[in-house]
Design a protein that fits this description.
The structure holds two protein chains of two kinds. Chain A is mostly helical. Helices cover about 55% and strands about 0% of the residues of chain A. Chain A contains ten helices and two strands; from the N terminus they run H-H-E-E-H-H-H-H-H-H-H-H. Chain B is built from 16 helices and no strands. The chains are: A mainly alpha, B mainly alpha. The complex binds protoporphyrin IX containing FE (2 copies) and fe (ii) ion.
């Protein structure tokens, strides 16, 4: 090969790749508006993104799979915990985290609202179904809702029970699997646990769920029905 | 042997600062591994969270590697252009500015002053000072080249790579409202650095050293340099798409990113073949072996870390499960080490003796340190990979949740913390050796 050929390889190779890359970048800008629902990118969501950056959450948590790998991915955390669940973790991380800790961060109420709006918007990004574990969880949640017992099932998801309990092969493993909890526990027992997890068992580690009286009734009946 | 050009001396303080920051970076790395393995008490997590120490670890890495590249460029430019550096004073000012900015940024992280974007945490207005430092550097090197008017492919690759590097950093400056677009351009900095601009710099510095220590004619080296650069940019630019699979971009990136990035190992393999070939033509008048050992070690671990470990998770079918896991970390460590840490150390071992006026130096400690570092980092990569496979399987395939998987990975991180201490020993040996090079051939070579 002569130096001249080598130089041509350099110029042509670079230009082809660059041209393709720039054309696709322009097209991506066009399509990403739809894929990310840019019309829902409200001021509140943008303010939430600034909160996310201000507290450097991203150097512990990944989001869209990018960042540090020290803590759970935040892309679909809204599915796992819902708005109340997210707020509860950030307000008192020490009650929700286990052997690996998250810092107590001084977010104002307004910052917290904005942050939740940002995470909700993020969970709606159409990103080819990543991450797989949350995709599975959503399928499990779908199955639960399909039992026809919502709104208890919907609350189960929104209040973050999936974070610690498995249901139809989906969810975390910190607490017992609840797929057949109704065959083990009566409605009254469940209701009592949800009011105060330490009522029956003083050693219990489950944090008191953020449920109103009415919500406890609905979640309790949903769970008691899972035989 | 005195320096060919007195202004090459400006490289010395760059190298010294780089080496000291390297030591700090590794110490912080050990703390990161401990944070994974142990339960850090809540009060300490509140005081000095993992997020802060991780930013310190990675920013120190980038800072010292770039200072090393800059020092290497200042060392090489006079010999390559046959001219003194345009302004040694500017070179010292630039060093002070960049180190001052870097140290301010690191201290700022500890007090929560951050841009909050991984690897690019340096906040406004410090990020603009980084740009000023880069501009001074490019001006100084550019003027040196310009005044010499002796165009070579090596100069072009080096200077082109440096300009490319600086331009890409600009995409980090704005605030992006849309998270997906934010990450889209984040990769223009990170990917187009390590798989584009930095590769050009690396290829140029390697080619230059090979010309200096072998009998291969410059024309041959420069011809292959063209081919390598062409392949790097052909595969690397569109290969950026391997980061666009899951961020909300259109699905054609699965094809474009997958195909182009799968070809990225090819130019790295070519560099390995090159180094192998050329080094059989060592110059007889060069007695020392250590620079050769380093150059070959770099070519091999560059290929393993970037080429093999990169390829392993670059196809979308695999990346769907491994994305953002400890597999990524395993690859990140060996690729950075093999390609850019060893490049800097190769250059330091070539240049330091000359900066100290030595022709031959005792290579025993340097040799031990080379094997110590390379073996430890390879084992560390395996430990990260074991953790990554566990995470991928338990969290992603079985769907058992993040913390369930992490519980199974604690042992890997305990081992990693120990390996980190061993690695630190190798780093200290290297730094002490480079700072106190002793004259004379080793006993074995004299015999
Ligand atoms: C010397 C060159 C390279 C260096 C220093 C390097 C370094 C890195 C680093 C630090 C990351 C993690 C970034 C983050 O998310 O924080 C990364 C990600 C990645 N690299 Fe490389 N890399 C190199 C070359 C390559 C090559 C040649 C390939 C493909 C053949 C490759 C494939 C990947 C992939 C697929 C990811 C994304 C991992 C994920 O999805 O989480 N890399 N690289
Ligand atoms: C030459 C030496 C080193 C290099 C080049 C290096 C490079 C890096 C890079 C590029 C990252 C970002 C990870 C990513 O985004 O993929 C990182 C993070 C990290 N490093 Fe290192 N590092 C080095 C030494 C060490 C040592 C000695 C340890 C201790 C065992 C260590 C432990 C860690 C840990 C635990 C993380 C955090 C990963 C995460 O985000 O979850 N590093 N390092
Ligand atoms: Fe990449």
């Amino acid at each position: 090969m002569s130096t001249k050929t080598a130089r041509w390889i350099f110029y042509i190779g670079t230009l082809i790749s660059l041209a393709l890359f720039l054309v696709l970048t322009v097209d991506t800008h066009r399509q990403i508006q739809t894929l990310t629902h840019a019309d829902r990118l409200s001021e509140q969501v943008v303010a939430g993104k600034r909160v996310w950056q201000k507290y450097n959450c991203n150097d512990c948590h990944t989001i869209l799979g990018f960042g540090s790998y020290y803590a759970p991915d935040m892309t679909k955390v809204y599915w796992r915990r819902g708005s109340e669940g997210i707020k509860a973790v950030i307000r008192s991380p020490e009650t929700f985290t286990t052997w690996r800790k998250m810092p107590r961060l001084p977010l104002t109420d307004k910052e917290l609202e904005n942050l939740v709006a940002f995470l909700q918007w993020t969970s709606e990004i159409d990103n080819q179904g990543w991450p797989p574990q949350d995709q599975k969880l959503r399928a499990g949640a779908g199955q639960a809702v399909a039992l026809g017992v919502s709104p208890g099932a919907a609350l189960y998801q929104a209040k973050g029970c999936f974070a610690c309990h498995r249901l139809y092969e989906a969810g975390g493993g910190a607490g017992p699997d609840l797929t057949h909890v109704g065959s083990r526990l009566s409605y009254e027992t469940i209701e009592r646990i949800l009011t105060d997890p330490r009522s029956g068992n003083p050693e219990a580690t489950m944090p008191t769920p953020p449920l109103s009286h009415e919500e406890r009734y609905q979640v309790g009946h949903f769970l008691a029905g899972l035989k | 042997m005195p320096l060919a050009y007195p202004s090459q001396r400006v490289a010395y303080p760059y190298f010294v600062v780089a080496l000291l920051l390297f030591v700090l970076q590794v110490i912080v790395g050990i703390w990161l591994a401990l944070s994974y393995a142990l339960t850090i008490p809540q009060w300490l997590v509140d005081l000095l969270p993992f997020s802060t120490t991780r930013a310190v670890h990675t920013n120190l890495l980038v800072l010292w590697l770039l200072l090393g590249f800059m020092g290497s460029t200042y060392f090489m430019a006079p010999e390559e252009t046959e001219r003194e550096i345009y302004s040694p004073t500017l070179a010292y000012i630039q060093l002070l500015l960049l180190v001052g900015t870097g140290v301010t940024a690191l201290a700022g992280f500890v007090f929560g002053w951050t841009k909050g974007k991984p690897l690019l945490e340096i906040p406004f207005p410090l990020d603009y000072l980084v740009v000023v430092g880069a501009l001074i550097f490019l001006f100084n090197v550019g003027m040196t080249i310009l005044r010499a008017r002796q165009w070579t492919v090596i100069q072009g690759s080096l200077f082109g790579g440096l300009v490319f590097l600086a331009v890409m950093y600009l995409f980090n400056l704005p605030f992006y409202a849309n998270l997906s677009i934010d990450w889209y351009y984040w990769w223009w900095v990170i990917h187009l650095w390590v798989e584009g601009a930095w590769e050009l710099v690396a290829a140029a510095l390697t080619a230059w050293i090979l010309i200096k220590i072998t009998n291969v004619p410059r024309a041959t080296v420069e011809k292959w340099l063209y081919v390598e650069l062409g392949l790097f940019l052909f595969t690397g630019i569109a290969g950026t798409g391997h980061h666009y699979y899951w961020l909300g971009a259109p699905s054609y990136w699965l094809w474009v990113g997958g195909i182009f990035s799968a070809l990225e190992p090819v130019p790295i393999l070519l560099m390995l073949a090159d180094a192998w070939h050329y080094l059989r033509n060592r110059r007889s008048e060069i007695k020392g072996r250590l620079v050769f050992t380093y150059a070959v070690g770099m070519a091999i671990l560059h290929f393993v870390g970037a080429g093999v470990w990169g390829f392993a998770h670059t196809l979308p079918q695999i990346n769907y499960y491994t994305h953002g896991s400890q597999i990524t970390v395993a690859h990140g460590h060996l690729a950075f080490f093999g390609a850019y840490v060893l490049l800097n150390l190769t250059f330091f071992y070539y240049a330091m003796p000359k900066l100290k006026g030595l022709t031959l130096f005792n290579e025993r400690r340097g040799n031990i340190a080379f094997w110590w570092l390379s073996i430890t980092m390879s084992v560390m990569t395996l430990a990260f990979s074991v953790a990554g496979v566990l995470q991928t399987h338990i969290e992603r395939i079985m769907g058992l949740g993040y913390m369930t998987a992490q519980a199974q990975m604690r042992l890997s991180f305990a081992i990693l913390a120990v390996l980190g201490v061993v690695f630190l020993g190798g780093v200290l040996l290297t730094v002490v050796d480079l700072m106190t090079l002793r004259p004379g051939p080793s006993a074995k070579e004299a015999a």
